[in-house]
Amino acid sequence: MKSLTLYERTHEGLSARDIRQALEHALQDRLPKLKKVLLLPPDYTRFHSYAGPITEMLYNMLKDTCTVDILPALGTHVPVPQSEWESMFGSIPFDRMIVHNWRNDVVQVGEVPAAFLTEVSEGLVNEAVPVEVNKRIFDPSYDLILSIGQVVPHEVVGMANRNKNVLVGCGGSRMINASHMLGAFYGMERIMGRDHTPVRKVFDYAEDNFLMHVPITYILTVTTAPQGNIHVHGLFIGRERARFEEAVALAQQKNLILMDRPIRKAVVLLDGTEFKSTWLGNKAVYRTRMAIMDGGELVVLAPGVDKFGEDKAIDLLIRKYGYKGREYVLDMVKQHEELRNNLSAAAHLIHGSSDDRFKITYCTRHLTREEVEGVGYGYIPYEEAIRRYNPEVLEDGFQIMPDGEEIFYVSNPALGLWAERGKFE
Predict the structure, then answer these.
(1) φ, ψ for residue 274 (rounded to 5)?
(2) pLDDT band per the 50, 70, 90 thresholds, residue 391
(3) So what's the pLDDT on residue 103?
(4) Residues 168, 161 contacting (CB under 8 angstroms)
(5) Closest listed residue to residue 137, CA positions, set 98, 92, 96, 89
(6) H or E element: which one contains 338?
(7) Beta-bridge partner residues of 298
(8) Where would I find the H helices in 187-282?
C-alpha cells in the first residue's frame, strides 16, 4: 500500500473528496489482489477523529470485491451500541462489527524484556511487559489490516495512535495494565504531548520485534473541532514511523495550547453523548492539569456521566479506592492484590487526581453527591452548575463572568492539551 502525506489547503481542513482520493490512491495497487481486509477504527469516544467517515469510505471502496471485517479498538471500553455505530460509521451494517474482548480474545506474541523497561523508565519499572494482541490480527487470511485513528496528546503514551491502536486498543489486559502503570510511574507531565516517551518506546519495540510480519498500514489524522465541526488538518498513510512523526509535529501545532499564565478556575464540558464515565471523562483532568495553578479549581460539567469505570470490575475499584493521589494509590497497590491485578485501574486513579494541587468538582445528573464525593471529588448538581456556567453561551478560553470571576472554558478536552508554557517546555 502506498505511503502518503496530505496537508490541508484551506483553514477549514481537507474535504471528504480530498480524503477519499488519497485513500483510493494509496490502495490502488492493492485493490485487485485483496480478498479479506480488517479495519481497526476507534470507538465513539474518538468521534472527532474523523475515523468514522474514513472507515465508511474504506468499507464502501472494498465491500464489493473482498470481505471487510471491522474490529473497533475498544481497549477497556464498552462495545459500541448500534446508535453510536450508526452515528459514527454511517452506512456500514452494524453486523460487520467484531467486539474486542480485552480479557479473553487475545494471544501473547512476545515480551518486552525487563532490561528494556528499566532503561526507558530510568529505573522506575523493572518488569517485562507481555505483548498481548487480539488473535484476529494474527489471522493469516487477512491480506491487509488498516488501523485508523487520530494523533493527539495522550496521558499514557504522549501522542495517541499508530501502534497504540493495535497494542492497547486491540490489546490484552496485561499489556494495557503494564503500559498504563509505566506511564503513571514516569509521570503524565513528562509524557503528554511528546513523542519518544517510555510507553511509546515499549510499543515501538513490540511492533519492531513481534508485529512486522503482520500486514498493518496506519491511517492517521490530525483534527480540531471548533463549534463541533471537524476539521481534518492532515492525513498520514503508511507504516513508516516517519508518517507518525509528521502527524505528531502537526498535532503539536494544532492540539497543544501553551498558556502564558496559569488558570485559576477551569470549566470543562464533557459532551453527554461521548463521555459517560469518569474513566473517559477524566480527560478534563489530564488535559488541563498542566495549566491549572496550585490552589485553583477544575469544574467538570458532565451531563452524561453515570458511572466511574467502563468495566464493572474497574468501576467497583474506583468506588472503593477513589481519586486520592499518587502516593496513596501506590501504597494501596502494595497492600491489595485486586489493584495489583488491575494496574490500568490503579494508573487511572493516579491520573484522575490532582494530588491536592487543585480542587476537582464534578457536576452530574446521574451520579449522586454521595457517589461523587465518595471517590474524592467535589460535587455540584449539573442543573445548578449550568445556571452559572452555561455551555450554550460560554466561549473557549478566558472570560469574565457577570460577577467578575475569571474562568477558562474548554468545550472538548479530548482534542487538546492545555499547559503553562514553562511546564511544557
Answers:
(1) -100, -35
(2) very high
(3) 86
(4) no
(5) 98
(6) helix 337-340
(7) 266, 360
(8) 198-206, 241-254, 278-281
pLDDT at 227: 80
CA 290, 291, 295, 297 dihedral sign is negative
Q: What are the structural domains of the chain?
A: 4-254 (3.40.50.11440), 258-424 (3.90.226.30)
Distance in angstroms (rounded) separating the CA atoms of residues 381 and 300 = 11
pLDDT digits (tens, 9 = 90+) for 80-126: 889 999 999 999 999 999 999 888 899 999 999 999 999 999 999 99
What is the rounded average pLDDT of the residues 8-18?
A: 89
pTM: 0.90
Helix, coil or strand: residue 107: strand
- 175 within 8 A of 210, measured Cβ to Cβ: no
Q: Which amino acid is at 180?
A: H
Neighbours of 229 (CB within 10 A): 10
Give how far the C-alpha of residue 312 lies from the chain's centroid of Cα atoms, to the nearest Å: 20
Average pLDDT, the chain: 94
Q: Can you give the pLDDT at residue 115?
A: 97
Q: Please give the Cα distance from 70 to 36 (Å, whole number).
A: 11
What is the separation of C-alpha 338 from the centre of its chain, rounded to a whole number of angstroms? 25
pLDDT at residue 333 tops 80: yes
Contact 262, 391 (CB under 8 A): no
Phi/psi class of residue 323: alpha, beta or left (left: φ > 0; alpha: ψ in -120 to 50)?
A: beta
- For CA atoms 322, 326, 328, 334, the dihedral sign is positive
Give the number of other Cβ atoms within 10 Å of residue 137's Cβ. Answer: 23
What single DSSP character describes residue 211? I
Q: Which three cell numbers stand for residue 3?
A: 505511503
Burial 56-84 (b: 16+ CB within 10 A, else e): bbbbebbeeebebbbbbbbbbbbebeeeb
Q: For cell 492532515, what's the residue?
A: 234
